[in-house]
Amino acid sequence: MADKLVFATYRCPVEAIEPCGEIKHCNALLNWFDHHCVELHSSGIIELTKETLVKLSCDLNGLSAANCTEVFPTIRNFVHGFDEYDETYWQQVYQLRQWCIVQLAETDFTAQRLFLQASW
Length: 120
What we know:
The chain has helices at about 25-35, 50-60, 70, 85-105, and strands at about 5-10, 20-25, 45-50, 115-120. The chain is an alpha+beta fold.
């Protein structure tokens, strides 16, 4: 499906790359990475450091209806993902919060590397 925005994440021990999650249709996440880390391009892979995940987690935990357009804005009129601040947006925020909690708890950043690949 050509209009899909998908973020695939991987843990990378020295021996193998292991998929560890997918986040679909969240253009606010693409926007967040573009403004806080590096501009993502389709099929580009970036390393997610512990510091990056902590920053993302803090931003997500501090979100409210009053500040979401400033802290975690969507990309308006972007053909991939949703750009409204509706129930779908808040479900994605909740899922991302949970994903960050799991990654921060389960990833041994001294022995593993965590990567993100965006594709659209």
